[in-house]
Structure formats: C-alpha cells, structure tokens
Amino acid sequence: MYTRVLLKLSGEVLGGESGQGLDQQAIHGIAAEVRDIAAAGLEMAVVIGAGNFLRGGACSELGIERTTGDYMGMLATLLNGMALQSAIEVMGYPTRVMSAIDARQVVEPYIRRRALRHM
Length: 119
What we know:
The strands form two sheets. A two-stranded parallel sheet has the order 1-2. A two-stranded parallel sheet has the order 3-4. The chain is globular. The mean pLDDT is 93. The protein has helices at 24-39, 56-61, 66-90, 112-118; strands at residues 4-9, 43-48, 98-99, 108-109. Helix 1 (24-39) packs across helix 3 (66-90). Helix 1 links the parallel strand 1 and strand 2. It has one domain (4-118): Carbamate kinase (3-Layer(aba) Sandwich). By secondary structure, it is α/β, with parallel strands linked by helices.
C-alpha cells in the first residue's frame, strides 16, 4: 500500500475550461481532491506547471531569450503554487510551497531534506 502520492498538474488545469489564468472553481475543485487524499492519511506532494500563464515557445516568438523565458515560467509556477496553497489552507490543511528560485518572502527554498521532513 502506498503512503505517499505525487500529483503532477499542468498549469492549464488551474485555468478551468479556457486553460488560461486562474479559475476559482477549478482551483477549489483540485484543492478539495487534495484535501480528500490527505484526509485518507496519505502524504502528498504536488508539482505544478504554469502553462496557464506562460509558454516557453510563445516567449521565443516574442523575441525573449530562452533562458529569460524559462525564468518567467518558473515565476509563473510560483503564482500557481501560491493559489493552490491558499485554496488548500482555507480547507484547513497545512501546506508548503517550495522553489529552487529564491523567493523567500513568499515561498520556502527547496532543500531536499527539508522537503522530506515536511512530508
């Protein structure tokens, strides 16, 4: 039997039917599913993308250098993580958002051992 679950979400899922931006109903639906998994006693990690805000290909079409576009995507991922975090915490479950991009004012730095302790 599994005790840990890793859920990989595309950013588009947070955009609802349009797949863009943030859709409250979609975010709360995902948060409810995460809550139900946690309530069942499983440890859960969520990895989320940012395609609802930004696509790397679109950046290059705008003349944005590839690495800059990648960093922009990582920042957009933080937006999604924070949105999902808020929705899950409103339901009474503690969360952590971690990132390899230093944004300590809003998320924790990703440190493998710390992530494992949080689980």
